[in-house]
Amino acid sequence: MALLKINNLCKSFGGLSAVLNFNMEIRENELIGLIGPNGAGKTTVFNLITGVYKPDEGEIIFKGENIGGLPPYAICKKGIARTFQNIRLFNNLTVLENVKIALHKDVPYSLPAAVVRFGSFYKGEAKIEEEALKWLSLFNLDYKKDEIASNLPYGEQRRLEIARALATHPTLLILDEPAAGMNPNETLELMELIRRLRDEFGLSILLIEHDMSLVMGVCERIYVLDYGQVIAEGKPEEIRNNKRVIEAYLGEEV
Amino acid sequence: MLELMQQIVNGLSLGAIYALIALGYTMIYGIIKLINFAHGDVMMVGAYIGFFSVSLLGTNIMVAMIFAMIACALLGVIIEKVAYKPLRRATRIAALITAIGVSLFLEYTTIFLLTPQQRIFPQGAFPVHDYNFLGLSVSNKDIFIFISAIVLMIILQFIVKNTKTGKAMRAVSEDKDAAVLMGINVDNTISMTFALGSALAAAAGVMIGVYYNTINPLMGILPGLKAFVAAVLGGIGIIPGAMVGGFILGILETLVSGYGNSLYRDAVAFGVLILILLIKPTGIFGKNTGEKV
Amino acid sequence: MKMLETRWGKFIIEVVALAVIFTLVQYFITAGIFNQYHQITLTSMCINIILAVSLNLINGFTGQLSLGHAGFMAVGAYVSVVLTKFMGMPFIVGIIAGCLGAALAGFVIGVPTLRLKGDYLAIATLGFGEIIRVILQNIDYVGGPAGVVGIPKLTSWGWLFAGVVVTIFVIQNLINSSYGRAIISVREDEIASEVMGVNTTNYKVLAFVVGAFFAGFAGVLYAHYFYIIKPETFNFLKSFDVLVMVVLGGLGSTTGAVIAAVFVTLLTAVLQAFPAVRMIIYALILILIMIYRPQGLMGNKELSVKILGRIWSGKDGSFEDK
């Protein structure tokens, strides 16, 4: 069964179609790429899936349930987590706190317990701390746990954002240009990491990426978006040779 | 029906005053994104200058208004240079607190220098006549306020639309950094905006003196706040919006005190404010823009 | 010494410290070392601390600019006075009802307005605060614009002390918990927070309601100390006063809010001696502090014994914003 199935998704801004009749299917444990020229509507698709925008039309079926139009926090609780193209960390908070906030949705103690400091608060906090550290060490960030997030170097900020997303225990992880601004070496490491995450946590991963070596190297299937519509879908080698895709990227005259 | 028309006519002059103050609010907000809480107090200073010009120098009301406008234009520029400019890179809330500080400073310096007593605007400066046409009674006071406000608004429109300074002002409120790259002197443009806005407030101050006959050092607080509501109502940062918002608010207020409980008059402004914010926060003329993610 | 660093150790130290402060001040009052003037200043100080710490929860930690705090204070004051003076109920009933009334007002106002952001929210809350004032002016039962006179003086040092301690205790415990982190994440980045599973609307309303609750508490204490309440006392200028304290202390710093509340109260008391220029000096100080230290006294840092120690030894005296 498909984990995520998107049917005829449409979204327009001020009469301009950003996404038009978009269809997509992601199966469990799959690694999917979403590519397309600038302004093709890729990030809009992500924003629709994660509830940041409300769809005009169409449905987004996740685990057999239409989540289209739900608020982002509800969609997060259903098991979809994401990162942002322009990193959005909680900049004035520490690395550890950033991850702890992602763990808030399963907070193990009640609000009164927090205010009056029942025993359950201390136990719960210890548990949150332990789990947050676990995620940080997975991304080699535990040694910087008390650093302020905005003071991290760029690559570590990207890693922290992924760690934070994973801490919400998603089944589907959505990465918006995870390799943006990385050098080829870092990109290679990132490819490794993405594969490892998928295998270790049984995740499905959907990513937008401009770096073709990364997309072609790591994704099992690729959707190509142009002017808000899917113009091609298939295995990396099929996409590489698809005439419409080449046209979309290089212009009509080729 | 006739009475309704009469109330609306009465509301026009109050609306014109609100519109003039609202223009300054909206221009200043448009250019530096600051709710200039001291704006109402600049108006108060304008009223006092007008008052002294008439009572001590014996000028007529037009000359008094021009004096007030020139002095307050200067005052506005000084306030901006001394208090707001150092905070241009600071948080919005720090600038807001500074504006509150400037407001208190103007109010209490005036009290210190001129006592908190209210003063009666000299009647001789403006002999009131009532005119009647079509069954409506209109005083020359209302006609004077309405016409001078309209003239000032036309001049402002001309400046903003057709002069180099006006174009610079629009450019800076659109995108400050891009304006710098286009060779616009942002500091001068901001000063110019404060000068224009404060001059309009001063004119409104003299008009309020004529309208209510009395002035006092704290007279700027409430009209200032209401004019701000008018600016939000029209869409903050939008010049025609401030004019329309001012007139709507002035007329509504006159209607409420004419027909209902005048104690609720002040609540009208805020009720309108909350309604507009909940229905269309960007105001009547505002465009809806979502946050880009 | 080890034992003092455990949870219970710290708790005991805190309780002892509080007991000492309470007894000392109580002694000063009973022994007559604090005269009438001192006591009024002390009362204003405690009320200002409660107001500043509670507004800081909304403005500083949640990042929602509210200018309606005086309105909630008014609700607390009026509700409690109706119960104690008009109905003869005990003070504690007045306190609880005043706080809950203010919290309810916070909920009713917060739910529709907290969709707004930044300046728009500020103006909407200011508008609601003023509407509360105008409504009170039009209720004859509570004296209309003249207000209520002859309120029994029930606010004692004990109640003031309890008010301050409970306010700080609740808000600090809330902030230093997972719920508090959720609240702070709203300030940091609302969209990221929402995507991480935080129902941001709920937390904004929560902060608003808790803030209003304690503003109500301050209102109750105020009404039962100063004998008279008038709607005019709770106009938007009062909200500005509290905002000034919060920003002076540093948005998002409870210790900052406390220090600023103490500072502003003392400043006002000292300036009382120069009535003619009092407000002019106050205004100038405000402008100068904002120009030279726009992030406030503490930035978003908390003052702790550790930092004090470091300043003392001269190692790292700065708690500048990074």
- Measured as a percent range, the helix fraction of chain B is over 70%
| Uncertain residue ranges of chain B | none
Terminal residue distance of chain B? 52 Å
Give the overall average pLDDT of chain B: 88
Query: Helices and strands of chain C, in N-to-C order?
Result: HHHHHEHHHHEHHHH
Specify the number of helices of chain C: 13
Query: Uncertain segments of chain C of ≥5 residues (pLDDT<50)?
Result: 314-322
Q: Strand sequence of the main sheet of chain B, in spatial order?
A: 1-4
The largest pleated sheet of chain C is described as: 2 strands, antiparallel
| Rg measurement of chain B, Å | 19 Å
| General shape of chain C | globular
| CATH class (first level) name of chain B | Mainly Alpha
In helices, the fraction of residues of chain C equals over 70%
Largest sheet of chain C, order of strands side by side? 1-2
**What oligomeric state do these chains adopt?**
heterotrimer
Overall CATH architecture of chain B: Orthogonal Bundle
Protein model, in words:
The complex is a heterotrimer of chains A (254), B (293) and C (322). In chain A, helix 3 packs across helix 5 and helix 3 runs parallel beside helix 6. Chain A has two domains: 29-78 and 171-222 and 229-254, Rossmann fold (3-Layer(aba) Sandwich); 89-164, no CATH class. Chain A is built from ten helices and ten strands. In chain A, helix 7 (184-201) links the parallel strand 7 (172-176) and strand 8. Chain A has helices spanning 42-49, 72-78, 95-102, 111-116, 119-138, 154-166, 184-201, 212-218, 236-240, 243-250, and strands at residues 2-13, 16-27, 31-35, 57-62, 65-66, 80-82, 172-176, 204-208, 221-226, 229-234. Chain B has 293 residues and is mainly alpha-helical. Chain B has one domain: ABC transporter involved in vitamin B12 uptake, BtuC, CATH 1.10.3470. Chain B is 72% helix and 4% strand. Chain B contains eleven helices and four strands. In chain B, the strands form two sheets. Chain B has a two-stranded antiparallel ribbon. A two-stranded antiparallel sheet of chain B has the order 2-3. With 322 residues, chain C is mainly α. Chain C has helices at residues 7-30, 36-61, 69-86, 91-113, 118-137, 157-175, 178-188, 190-195, 200-226, 236-249, 254-271, 278-292, 305-313, and strands spanning 148-149, 228-229. A two-stranded antiparallel ribbon of chain C has the order 1-2. The longest helix of chain C is centred in the middle third of the chain and has 27 residues, at 200-226. Chain C is globular and about 55 Å long. Classes of the chains: A alpha/beta (254), B mainly alpha (293), C mainly alpha (322). At the A-B interface, loops of A face loops of B.
